[in-house]
Amino acid sequence: DADVTQTPRNRITKTGKRIMLECSQTKGHDRMYWYRQDPGLGLRLIYYSFDVKDINKGEISDGYSVSRQAQAKFSLSLESAIPNQTALYFCATSVGGSTEQYFGPGTRLTVT
Amino acid sequence: RKEVEQDPGPFNVPEGATVAFNCTYSNSASQSFFWYRQDCRKEPKLLMSVYSSGNEDGRFTAQLNRASQYISLLIRDSKLSDSATYLCVVNRRDSSYKLIFGSGTRLLVRP
């Protein structure tokens, strides 16, 4: 079984809809991250959380919100989806004190 | 200017070839350096860390030049299975373990 899982794996939604992407991990890591990946731009950090009570904005947080429901769960919400949020979204985890991050399989989101 | 820059490629090489990728970073506060591998439509996975003294892992050799602010990855005896995108990744001393990703260099190894 995968250590970091993401649901859904693919989603097509319409402009203006609210959508939530979920991430769960069984690695026991305290730190979790959300990234988006666009062609030619690499991965960009949206939000990160170092523990359940710690949420921080990344470089591109506008239009997104997150919730850390438990150490193992970190969800990303798009309150009102827009077409330029079409991208591949990755969740990642790490243990405090380490720079190595472990990624989930990704969610491919299309906003029409 | 991007903080981490890579040639997007693709580098198209025959099996058995040696291929090298370079990556430059602009922030002198960068502290830790990595190469991640990403297969098509898959998640990135750590390939190797890059140490100041250079390091080798089988057919893969990574080098760091702090003075010129570039990192390299050398792959010897390329295999078909090496076909992937290679992401250069840095971590800044002031960034609390946040990683900065390059956009990747694509490698295609042909039979």
Summarize the structure.
Chain A is an all-beta fold and 112 residues long. Chain A is 0% helix and 58% strand.
Structural write-up:
The complex is a heterodimer of chains A (112) and B (111). Chain A is mainly beta. Chain A contains no helices and 11 strands. In chain A, the strands form 2 sheets. In chain A, strands 2, 4, 5, 6, 9, 10 and 11 form a 7-stranded mixed sheet that branches. In chain A, a hairpin with a 2-residue loop joins strand 7 and strand 8. Chain B is mainly β. Helix content of chain B is 0%, strand content 57%. In chain B, strands 2, 4, 5, 9, 10 and 11 form a 6-stranded mixed sheet that branches. Chain B has a 5-stranded antiparallel sheet with strand order 1-3-8-7-6, with no helix packed on it. In chain B, a hairpin with a 2-residue loop joins strand 6 and strand 7. Chains A and B meet through strand 5 and strand 9 of A and strand 5 of B.
What distinguishing features does this structure have?
heterodimer; A: 112 residues; mainly beta; seven-stranded mixed beta sheet; four-stranded antiparallel beta sheet; 11 strands; B: mainly beta; six-stranded mixed beta sheet; five-stranded antiparallel beta sheet; 0% helix
